[in-house]
Amino acid sequence: MKKRFASLWFRHLKTDWMAVGHPLLKEVPFVLAISSRGKLVVNASNVWAEKEGVYPGLAIADAKAFLPSLKVINERPGLTEKLLHNIAHWCIRYTPFVAIDLPEGIILDISGCAHLWGGEAFYLQHIVSRFKDHGYDVRMSIADTIGAAWAMAHFGKENPIVEPQMQFDALWALPAEALRLEVAVLQRLQSLGLKTIGSFATMPRTALRRRFGTDLLRRLDQATGLEDEFIAPIKPIVPYEERLPCLEPIRTANGIELALQQLIYTICKRLAGEGKGVREAILQCHRVDGKIEQISIGTNRATAHEHHLFQLFALKIAQIEPALGIELFVLEIPKVEAADPAQENLWGNRIGLDNPMVTELLDRLKSRDPGCEISRYLPAAHYWPERSMRIASSVQEASAVDWQVDRPRPTRLLSIPEPIIVTAPIPDYPPLLFRYKGQVYTVKKADGPERIEREWWIDTGEHRDYYAVEDEKGRRFWLYRSGHYDDRSPNQWFLHGFFA
């Protein structure tokens, strides 16, 4: 794909921002001032102040001398970076590749994006008109290279769209400043009468390097396309992403569903072709007012099943507030994993954890209630009950050891055994009854004892003698006595679990 770039130049970025927030400043000459070498100087001036000859760098005292009505506002530290950062994030609706171009610009990599708005002319017109509607004075240009787009945005007088491979012709008549050169290099060019790019672009490269250094050649090559130039996007690039701009703002849940179905269909088709599936997905809805509504889902197993993914998102669509309307939908897949094609071909009558419908049910439960915790347990190589199991990292994780089935184990094991009061006929006999949380349980059947020694290489303490008991109502419990019987220590008995 042929690269295309766009450069945006906000000629009065900070003063436009002030005027947007304070409408009374729109037709008043004012400046933003900073302290420099012990005095206040102009750091930014609005259009009305520039018409009166007030430009950045001028001392405030001098400006007030010939323009007493000039309004002076102290500039906030870091204002430029903050404004450009916010604008760059807003521009992500037009392309995922957005970079800040200090001091007053934004660079967009628009490769493969403009056709979504009907072509580069409509793309440029749409962006510029949106910014002007918000009160910002902006110039924009499109070209094959960052350097050519920047030069045309700042110094171009004619068509702001440079046709492919025509950047050299577009740059020919522009001043040398359009190459983003250092001041010292520009001064040497001016002293030799080389004022336009065309006046030195065809000169021998050895002569240019000897007189002006390598920076001039590098900038010239970047602008003409002989040397690549890259941008540093403000947002990490997600390898799997689909975008859907809207001809008219979407305000209804039905419209959101239709857009979501289209995005899921496109991304799943791509993922299935690569043998991958979704583990995490994020839907971003860019509203007309500049705000972004976002919902996300996660899956227990990598899947490219469209219906299942849509069902997970459908549970959260009600959380999206479209307000005046959504003009762009972006579906990001930040986490993908290899997917088994057989699982996607499916949906037979298989049972167990290998059945995709089981994992999809778990996904829906989790999406319906974010606070819901669903865990799968695997056996661990320990005899001590609290250490005999662990939480699996995924539904598909295989067990390294087998469950202990030679002795009965409760279906529900308490994480911390709870003390009980027991009545037993003789020390090594099971209890006749026990009291737990204020209720007395009469034991009718019992099995035991089963002695479990403490794992001395991990910690120290008493062994346990376990009994599986059943009360008169058929309820079954797992009890144990800690250590040997001691009539001086009545609180030796504990309830550790419940059988089904």
Walk me through this protein's architecture.
By secondary structure, the chain is of the alpha+beta class. Among the domains are: 241-368, DNA polymerase, Y-family, little finger domain (Dna Ligase, domain 1, 2-Layer Sandwich), CATH 3.30.1490; 412-498, no CATH class. It is 28% helix and 29% strand. The chain contains 14 helices and 20 strands. The strands form five sheets. The chain has a seven-stranded antiparallel beta sheet, with no helix packed on it. It has a four-stranded antiparallel beta sheet with strand order 5-6-1-7, sandwiched between helices. Strands 8-11-9-10 form a four-stranded antiparallel beta sheet, covered by helices on one side. Strand 16 and strand 17 (439-452) form a beta hairpin. Helix 6 (146-155) crosses helix 10 and helix 11 (253-273) packs antiparallel against helix 12. The longest helix is centred in the middle third of the chain and has 21 residues, at 253-273. The radius of gyration is 36 Å and the shape is elongated. The two termini are 63 Å apart.
Strand % is 25-35%
Number of helices: 14
Q: What's the CATH class label of the domain at 241-368? A: Alpha Beta
In CATH, the homologous superfamily of the domain at 241-368 goes by the name DNA polymerase, Y-family, little finger domain
- The N- to C-terminal Cα distance equals 63 Å
* Integer-rounded radius of gyration: 36 Å
Write the CATH fold name of the domain at 241-368.
Dna Ligase, domain 1
The main pleated sheet reads as: 7 strands, antiparallel
- Shape descriptor reads elongated
Strand order within the widest beta sheet: 14-20-19-18-17-16-15
Helix content: 25-40%
